TrEMBL record:
Full protein name: Uncharacterized protein
Listed transmembrane segments: 6-24
Keywords: Membrane, Transmembrane, Transmembrane helix
Domain of life where this protein originates: Eukaryota
Length: 69
């Protein structure tokens, strides 16, 4: 039983690590494609802070670009 729990936790950790790797590799370029009119500084801010992403009102070009990015 203990071995099963350890293996489960290991698999969960690997899944989280894989998701973070995908986020850091693909998300910046996807944001740039979805939001071509936003400055590089603002794109960096959006990428690094999910709460900053939610500051844009729903339905605005920036919020839609973040969702589609």
């Amino acid at each position: 039983m203990t071995t099963a729990v350890i293996l489960l936790v290991t698999e969960i950790g690997a899944s989280i690590g894989g998701s973070v790797a995908i986020w850091t590799r693909k998300m910046p370029s996807k944001l740039a494609q979805s939001l071509p009119d936003i400055s590089e500084k603002d794109l960096t801010t959006l990428f690094s802070s999910i709460p900053d992403m939610t500051k844009y009102e729903r339905g605005t070009h920036a919020r839609t670009g973040v969702i589609l990015g």
